[in-house]
Sequence to fold (230 residues):
Amino acid sequence: MIDLHYWPTPNGHKVTLFLEEAGLDYRLHPVNIGKGDQFLPEFLAISPNNKMPAIVDHAPADGGAPLSVFESGAILLYLAEKTGRFLSSDLRGRAATLEWLFWQMGGLGPMSGQMGHFNVYAPERIPYAIERYDSEVRRLHRVMDKRLSESKYLAGDEYGIADMASYPWIGAYSKLPADFVAFPHLGRWHQAIAERPATQRAYALGPTVNPDAGKPLSDEERKHLFAKRD
Fold:
């Protein structure tokens, strides 16, 4: 059994995508980031960077005590190695998967998050920041589109953890849709993943955990999400 500490954000969706695809038994533990649950001592004990998702595996491969893992990319890699799924055992296939997984963690996710922040959540419009992150995300989409013109999925012909990591960040903000006209290969890939039954099950969890998703943020939510903390 795996405990998943989760909130329905792009990074949270990454892990439910894997768990639903793999059919692993798991329990959801909501981490309401708008109420500050990510700063609770019991959560910081398994995720010291006060970010979700995090997991606790109660049946690790070494047979030892429960094992906690934080950071969504590390979780995907851990689960892939645990199950032997969605990560090629072939040297070159594995290398390609890790390249694109780390590309997402270091680029697509952070840049898309900043684009969303300055376009959707910032209390004032800062044109330089908006243009900076819009332009960078578009560049990253162009990189993906070029790759997906050459292969079915990011690491080759098989769906894998690099795709699970990247998919939730494409069109993550309803006000900022991806340009599938300019990037048709990206659009083809995105539609194929959206149609997977496991994807639909994973995303169906969101409204059950956070029925207020999409509503304007309250002052309390802004404080927990964006305010400076000592």
Remarks:
- Residues 48 and 201 are 29 Å apart (CA to CA).
- The two ends are 35 Å apart (CA to CA).
- The chain is about 50% helix and 10% strand.
- The domain at 91-195 is CATH 1.20.1050.10 (Glutathione S-transferase Yfyf (Class Pi); Chain A, domain 2).
